[in-house]
């Protein structure tokens, strides 16, 4: 379905270019829910935006992204517009700022349909039944209201229904649980389960919340400072990860005793050579310092570390 | 030994709606009391009332023996109702520090306010505080916009510790931080608690964090303390 | 009304004045200056400004003739070696009049802006910080003065007071302070709620200290931008007023007056209307460039490259 | 109310000052009893508040704003005569400023950092800095003196409206353009624009439906202030083009120390200013639903 090979993304700034994504490769199969876990600034959101070519013009992108075998970066703007919304849709990070404050909800929902050749009235009807499927109370009233009149949870569901309106083959969800408390996080998990059962579209879920990834994703990749360090089934990653950083992440969870890792992730302008986790890795070897570990198959998943 | 902080049936109305109903709890010397509640349960309001940022509609708060709030009113004592012994850590790192002041000035400001030591001592006092919260000197000469969330919360902690408080009210100090950084900050707070005999009122919606860090947890629902458990 | 107004002025300007001086010094000597030099357009504008101030200060020495020396035999003369920019209808040398005009314009506008800055910032800060009754009174006064288009008010004042430099400065300042006060009040209201202000108050800082250390530095930036651009606008107003003959007495050379004098002889000696206008435009352009540049430099999140 | 207080409280008893100036042209000294008759006729001697009530009572209630000292005809009549000219001038320059300002602003925002953008910004820099009356003079110089195309002064036909309204609108047009450009750029960076692109909407639709409406909000707030500047400017432009509007009446009456006329003009101008601000507020609530439901 989606194939990403050696993706590099750099943002030139006043004092040097920030290497947001430093050689990432992964693929998502039909109907699979693939998660990317990473902390703030690990470059996970950049990947999502790169797939839909929504990065700012200043970004320098290398590498190939194949969707259904076609390279996204060789598509012309018409093909690109065709793909966005119909085949690949985005569920943005903070629902509050992703809805146009001065436009009625009905316009914002139906315009996706209009764009892909469906008349507004019919589009609105379709949108309403998607909304009711996603447990959004009284879709009719919501459509006539303005975004600021909706609660956080309702905004999220509205966004979900917008991005699902054309039954896309791939849905990219960017940090759906950011800033939510436990209870609304359960609701989000429920929402995503409904989406998968109802539409069966494959999903790319970008989050920093391990438990959420375990509950919603089949396979999960762990990102650190712009590189993928481990890819494995969601269950194994959360319970028994193999990469030292992934282990550190799991141990830092409150329920596992809040065992902290010392130090911070390296500066992104001139990345140290060798393994990026070298300074903070407890089981580091001198080879880690010099040579960038390559992705190796290991116990059903892949890990990039010299220990294995 | 009487408890450090005694709160007796604290009430608070917020434009008509009653937000807190007879909230009572106390915090012993050197203890960490967790305050758990979903968003909207009024836990932040409790914190702000204890700290004196919000005035209350009834109830007493006694800190270290002397009352700071008697039946809802602030007695004349204390610098406009703010007790130096209690300090607060806020939830959002990006607004907890003055964007125009370097880390160093933020840490030293409390000392300057109470002119607790001469300028020559300032430098090494700052060094000492920075070491205590695990920050190097290079962090001190950066602006908050050049620091990560975890580093900012450490500077906030150092800033508060400089005047030796007895109770720190922390309103979801680590909810905006990543998991690994959260672990570092909470570990740091525990270490400081042992060294400086400080007690915490830790407010959070994340029950796992509270179970891990607090000695006792008070459960707050719709402005009422429903139960208090030992961890 | 006027007596009452000057009374607040003297009392308030005492406190406001010291705040401003300290803030401006500390704000300018740190890295803001290096950043300013980095930008080409700012550099040019600053050099031109320095030149301008030099000319304004040294105009009596620089100008070849006494600006008011009447020499009737070569009225409306064109460019000659003796009179580089020709002469006006009374035979006075245009070049020296323009040079001295720079002094008048710059000194008046500097005076007006500083005066309104002091009053505006102090009143705005007090209104924003303390709120309640004080805020009510000051805000009403602000609305009162802003109800007038600035030139109309100044026109009426000048008409009543009669032409003199002090009256001109006073009448212009009476209008401009209100816009500073309103901007300042808005800034203070938003900064006051920030968490770092609350925590400083908890640490026992006095109101004055909070205002000086935290509130003003974080709300002064847009005011400085407005003040820089206003320097240009005041020059425009001064020129307009003296164009209508209500500005300065005749003996003080002023660009606006020159323009209105030259108006009558447009057909025969058009140059008289072009040079003073050009001078005004040039000065105002310098201030506009400086103003825009200041806006980017003092922008808070431009501080340094924030962590990616 | 403020206008009246202001004019009368100022230093020197206005009446005496006024009378002296008004007649200085005619003959030299003003004898005391002449002074007395004049002030009695215009009841200038009784205390201020009585004058004020007198003025308010017959002025605002019956529209008789007193009689002009110089023209000796009721002020209201004078104002009515001149009002249409000023409104015409203000309206035409306002529309030019808004139409060109907004469209150029949006255009240069879309072509950000390309040649046209830099060119427009450079021109707008000068546009904002040029004093209105100097622009007027230049236009006269260019069009009438050199090209002899358009009549310089006079009122009535469409031709002589062009120059004054153009001169008056240049300043507002350029500042509106700059504000539109910045707010447009800011809006284009918002999340909902990125989400709209993610929905596959064409750029053209995104701009018209999403970006434009949001970008106009800050522009409208500043519109009120710009109109004030426009009214202020009209006073001067009317002088340059001797356009028979309230502005030139105000200027002449000030130099002629004609108190009631001055007050009348100021009140009318301020009224127009407040009216425009009021309209701007209504437009703002219409555009931004958040405020309408409050």
How would you describe this structure to a colleague?
- The complex is a heterotetramer of chains A (about 300), B (about 230), C (about 300) and D (about 290).
- Chain A has twelve helices and twelve strands.
- Chain A is α/β, with parallel strands linked by helices and about 300 residues long.
- Chain A has one domain: Rossmann fold, CATH 3.40.50.
- The longest helix of chain A has 18 residues, at about 180-200.
- The model of chain A has no long low-confidence stretch (mean pLDDT about 80).
- Chain B has helices at about 45-50, 105-115, 120-130, 135-140, 150-160, 180-195, 205-215, and strands spanning about 5-15, 15-25, 30-35, 60-65, 65-70, 85-90, 165-170, 200-205, 215-220, 225-230.
- Chain B has about 230 residues and is of the alpha/beta class.
- Chain D has 13 helices and no strands.
- Helix content of chain D is about 80%, strand content about 0%.
- The two termini of chain D are about 30 Å apart.
- The interface of C and D includes residues 144, 148, 157, 232 and 276 of C.
Report the CATH topology name of the largest domain in chain B. Answer: Rossmann fold
Query: What helical percentage do the residues of chain C reach?
Result: over 70%
Mean pLDDT of chain C: 75
* Computed structural class of chain C: mainly alpha
Model regions low in confidence, pLDDT < 50 over at least 5 residues of chain C: 1-28, 302-308
The most extensive contact between chains is: C-D, 44 and 43 residues
- Helical content of chain B stands at 25-40%
N-to-C SSE series of chain C? HHHHHHHHHHH
Q: How large, in whole angstroms, is the Cα Rg of chain C?
A: 22 Å
Question: Which architecture of the largest domain in chain B per CATH?
Answer: 3-Layer(aba) Sandwich
User: In which order are the strands of the major sheet of chain B placed?
Assistant: 6-7-8-3-9-10
What's the total count of β strands of chain C?
0
Task: Summarize the helix and strand pattern of chain B as letters.
Answer: EEEHEEEHHHHEHEHEE
The unreliable regions of chain B are 76-81
Q: What is the approximate shape of chain C?
A: elongated
In CATH terms, the superfamily of the largest domain in chain B is P-loop containing nucleotide triphosphate hydrolases
**Average pLDDT for all residues of chain B:** 82
> How many β-strand stretches of chain B?
10
Looking at this protein, list some descriptive labels.
heterotetramer, A: 308 residues, alpha/beta, Rossmann fold, 8-stranded mixed β-sheet, globular, D: 294 residues, mainly alpha, 0% strand, disordered N terminus
Task: Annotate the secondary structure layout.
The complex is a heterotetramer of chains A (308), B (231), C (308) and D (294).
Chain A lengths: L1 E12 L2 E13 L4 E6 L5 H8 L8 E8 L2 E2 L5 H10 L1 E4 L3 H4 L6 H11 L4 H14 L5 H6 L7 H13 L5 E5 L7 H18 L2 E6 L2 H7 L2 E6 L2 E7 H6 L4 H8 L34 H5 L5 E3 L2 E3 L5
Parallel strand pairs in A: 3-8, 3-9, 6-7, 7-8
Antiparallel strand pairs in A: 1-2, 1-4, 4-5, 9-10, 10-12, 11-12
Helix pairs in contact in A: 4-5
Chain B lengths: L4 E10 L2 E11 L4 E5 L6 H9 L8 E4 L2 E4 L16 E4 L13 H11 L5 H14 L4 H4 L8 H13 L5 E5 L7 H18 L2 E6 L2 H7 L2 E6 L2 E7 L1
Parallel strand pairs in B: 3-8, 3-9, 6-7, 7-8
Antiparallel strand pairs in B: 1-2, 1-4, 4-5, 9-10
Chain D lengths: L1 H8 L4 H11 L7 H10 L6 H15 L12 H36 L4 H15 L2 H15 L12 H30 L2 H8 L4 H38 L5 H10 L3 H29 L1 H5 L1
Helix pairs in contact in D: 5-6, 5-8, 5-10, 5-12, 6-8, 7-8, 7-10, 8-10, 9-10, 10-11, 10-12, 11-12
């Amino acid at each position: 379905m989606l194939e990403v090979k050696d993706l590099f993304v750099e943002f030139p700034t006043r004092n040097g270019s920030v290497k947001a994504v430093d050689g990432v490769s992964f693929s998502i199969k039909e109907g699979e829910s693939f998660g990317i876990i990473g902390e703030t600034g690990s470059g996970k959101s950049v990947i999502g935006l790169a797939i839909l070519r929504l990065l700012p013009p200043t970004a320098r992108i290398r590498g190939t992204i194949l969707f259904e075998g076609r390279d996204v970066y060789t598509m012309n703007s018409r093909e690109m517009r065709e793909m966005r919304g119909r085949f690949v849709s985005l569920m943005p990070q903070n629902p509050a700022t992703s809805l146009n404050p001065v436009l009625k909800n009905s316009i914002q929902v139906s315009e996706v349909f209009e764009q892909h050749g469906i008349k507004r009235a019919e589009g609105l009807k379709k949108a309403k039944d998607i909304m009711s499927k996603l447990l959004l109370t009284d879709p009719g009233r919501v459509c006539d209201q303005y975004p600021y009149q909706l609660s956080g949870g309702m905004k999220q569901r509205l966004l979900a229904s917008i991005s699902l309106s054309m039954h896309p083959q791939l849905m990219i969800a960017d940090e759906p649980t950011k800033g939510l408390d436990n209870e609304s996080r359960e609701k989000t998990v429920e929402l995503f389960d409904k989406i998968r059962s109802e539409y069966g579209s494959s999903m790319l879920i970008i989050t920093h919340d391990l438990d959420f990834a375990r509950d919603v994703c089949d396979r999960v990749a762990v990102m650190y400072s712009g590189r993928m360090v481990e890819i494995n089934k969601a269950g194994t990653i959360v319970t028994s990860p193999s990469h030292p950083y992934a282990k550190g992440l799991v141990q830092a969870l409150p329920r596992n005793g809040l065992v902290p890792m010392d130090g911070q992730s390296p500066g992104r302008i001139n990345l140290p050579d060798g393994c990026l986790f070298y300074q903070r890795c407890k089981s580091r070897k001198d080879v880690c310092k010099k040579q960038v570990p390559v992705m190796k198959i290991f116990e059903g998943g892949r890990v990039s570390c010299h220990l294995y | 030994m009487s408890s450090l902080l005694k709160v007796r049936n604290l009430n608070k109305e917020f434009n008509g709606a009653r937000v807190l109903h007879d909230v009572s709890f106390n915090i012993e010397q050197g203890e960490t009391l967790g305050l758990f509640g979903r968003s909207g349960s009024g836990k932040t309001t409790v914190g702000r009332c204890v700290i004196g940022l919000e005035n209350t509609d009834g109830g007493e708060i006694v800190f270290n023996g002397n009352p700071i709030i008697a039946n809802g009113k602030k007695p004349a004592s204390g610098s406009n109702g703010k007790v130096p012994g209690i300090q607060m850590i806020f939830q959002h790192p990006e607004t907890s520090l003055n964007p125009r002041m370097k880390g160093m000035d933020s840490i030293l400001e409390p000392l300057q306010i109470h002119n607790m030591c001469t300028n020559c001592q300032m430098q090494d006092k700052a060094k000492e505080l920075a070491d205590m919260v695990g920050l190097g000197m290079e962090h001190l000469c950066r602006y908050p916009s050049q620091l990560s969330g975890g580093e900012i919360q450490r500077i906030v902690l150092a800033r508060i510790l400089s005047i030796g408080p007895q109770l720190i009210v922390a309103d979801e100090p680590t909810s905006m931080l990543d998991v690994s950084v959260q672990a570092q900050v909470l570990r740091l707070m525990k270490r400081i608690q042992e060294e400086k005999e400080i007690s915490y009122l830790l407010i959070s919606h994340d029950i796992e964090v509270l179970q891990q860090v607090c000695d006792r947890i008070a459960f707050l629902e719709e402005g009422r303390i429903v139960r208090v458990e030992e961890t | 009304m006027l007596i009452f107004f000057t009374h607040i002025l003297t009392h308030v300007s005492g406190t406001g004045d010291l705040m401003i001086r300290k803030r401006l010094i500390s704000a300018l000597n740190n890295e803001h200056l290096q950043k300013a030099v980095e930008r080409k357009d700012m550099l040019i504008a600053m050099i031109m400004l320095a030149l301008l101030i030099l000319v304004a200060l040294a105009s009596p020495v620089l100008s070849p003739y006494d600006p008011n020396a009447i020499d009737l035999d070569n009225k409306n003369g064109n460019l000659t070696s003796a009179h580089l920019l020709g002469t006006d209808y009374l035979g006075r040398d245009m070049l020296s009049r323009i040079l001295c005009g720079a002094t008048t314009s710059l000194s008046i506008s500097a005076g007006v802006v500083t005066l309104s800055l002091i009053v505006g910032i102090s009143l705005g800060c007090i209104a924003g910080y303390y709120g309640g009754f004080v805020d009510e009174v000051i805000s009403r006064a602000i609305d009162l003065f802003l109800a007038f288009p600035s030139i109309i008010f100044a026109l009426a004042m000048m008409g009543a007071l009669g032409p003199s430099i002090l009256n001109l400065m006073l009448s212009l300042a009476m209008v401009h302070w209100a816009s500073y006060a309103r901007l300042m009040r808005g800034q203070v209201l938003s900064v006051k709620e920030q968490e770092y202000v609350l925590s400083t108050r908890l640490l026992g800082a006095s109101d004055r200290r909070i205002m000086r250390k935290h509130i003003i530095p974080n709300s002064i930036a847009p005011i400085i931008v407005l003040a820089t651009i206003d320097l240009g606008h005041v020059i425009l107003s001064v020129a307009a007023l003296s164009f209508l003959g209500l500005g300065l007495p005749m003996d003080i050379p002023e660009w606006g007056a020159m323009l209105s004098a030259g108006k009558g002889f447009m057909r025969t000696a058009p140059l008289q209307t072009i040079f003073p206008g050009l001078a005004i435009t040039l000065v105002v352009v310098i201030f506009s460039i400086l103003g825009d540049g200041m806006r980017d430099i003092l922008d808070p999140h431009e501080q340094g490259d924030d962590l990616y | 109310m403020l206008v009246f207080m202001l004019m009368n409280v100022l230093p020197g008893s206005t009446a005496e000052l006024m009378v002296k100036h008004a007649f200085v042209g005619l003959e030299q000294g003003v004898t005391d009893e002449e002074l007395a008759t004049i002030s009695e006729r215009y009841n200038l001697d009784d205390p201020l508040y009585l004058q004020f009530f007198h003025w308010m009572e017959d002025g605002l209630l019956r529209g008789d704003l007193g009689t002009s000292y110089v023209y000796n005809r009721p002020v209201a009549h004078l104002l009515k005569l001149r009002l249409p000219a000023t409104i015409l001038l203000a309206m035409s320059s306002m529309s030019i400023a808004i139409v060109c300002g907004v469209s150029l602003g949006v255009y240069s925002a879309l072509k950000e950092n390309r040649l046209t953008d830099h060119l427009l910004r450079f021109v707008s820099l000068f546009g904002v800095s040029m004093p209105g009356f100097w622009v007027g003079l230049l236009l006269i110089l260019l069009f009438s003196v050199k090209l002899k195309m358009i009549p310089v002064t006079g009122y009535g036909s469409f031709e002589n409206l062009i120059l004054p309204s153009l001169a008056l609108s240049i300043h507002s047009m350029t500042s509106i353009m700059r504000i539109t450009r910045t707010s447009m750029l800011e809006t284009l960076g918002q999340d909902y624009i990125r989400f709209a692109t993610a929905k596959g909407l064409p750029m053209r639709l995104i701009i018209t439906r999403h970006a434009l409406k949001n970008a106009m909000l800050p522009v409208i707030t500043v519109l009120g202030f710009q109109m004030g500047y426009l009214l202020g400017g009209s006073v001067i432009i009317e002088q340059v083009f001797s356009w028979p509007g309230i502005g030139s009446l105000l200027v002449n009456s000030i130099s002629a120390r004609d108190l009631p006329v001055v007050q009348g003009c100021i009140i009318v101008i301020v009224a127009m200013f407040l009216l425009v601000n009021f309209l701007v507020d209504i437009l703002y609530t219409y555009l931004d639903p958040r405020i309408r439901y409050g």
